[in-house]
Design a protein that fits this description.
This protein is of the alpha/beta class. It has one domain: Maf protein, CATH 3.90.950.10. α3 crosses α4. The protein is elongated and about 50 Å long.
Length: 198
């Protein structure tokens, strides 16, 4: 007999404060766990394929120590043309990213995976988002980076914070995807697993 989906543990395979805050919106109990995964892209891999592979790898890595759980993994790849934009890590790199991206459209592929550790079933979906950055002045970029310090955000702008002032437009089906966990897709996937949301 399959485990009761309502009573099964739910684990977020991430230590990201942004993903944790997003999942908390659903008001269902969960715990977080750090996935030990090499997040390097593979040669010739598309951004979407990278995001999907890493979302699944994170969920599987955490599932090994949570054998009865439903495990959520997520990954996001930001890119413009052939260039991938990771987390800048410091002010100089954040400024450099924004200088490169001003006046351009950045694409974000955000993948979410729900892995059933008990059965090995794996569901994955990717939600794309297009972000158009304003033609920013150097002063605007430097003031923004000093004010918000977006060192842990791919593309160096927090759309859920002051970074929204840097943008001309956001196009996508789920605003939470850009922050790092597409809740509309995730809700559908968790319902498919038998969870009642809301």
């Amino acid at each position: 007999m399959d485990p009761d989906p309502v009573s099964r543990p739910l684990v977020l395979a991430s230590t990201s404060v942004y993903r944790r805050e997003l999942l908390a919106r659903l008001r269902i109990p969960f715990v977080t766990a750090r996935p030990e995964v090499d997040e390097s892209a593979l040669e010739g891999e598309t951004p979407r394929a990278t995001a999907e592979r890493l979302a699944c790898a994170k969920a599987r890595a955490v599932a090994a120590s949570h054998p009865d759980a439903l495990v959520i993994g997520s990954d996001q790849v930001a890119y413009c043309g052939a260039t991938i934009y990771g987390k800048p890590g410091n002010a100089a790199r954040a400024i450099a990213q924004l200088r490169e991206l001003r006046g351009r459209t950045v694409l974000f592929d955000t993948a979410v995976c729900v892995f059933d550790a008990a059965t090995g079933s794996c569901r994955v979906r990717t939600v794309p988002t297009e972000v158009r950055v304003r033609p920013l002045s150097s002063d605007e970029i430097e003031r923004y980076v000093a004010a918000e310090q977006p060192f842990d955000c791919a593309g160096a702008a927090r759309s859920e914070g002051l970074g929204i002032a840097l943008l001309e437009s956001i196009r996508g089906e789920d605003p939470t995807a850009l922050v790092g966990l597409p809740l509309i897709a995730l809700c559908a996937m968790l319902r498919e697993e038998g969870l009642a949301i809301p």
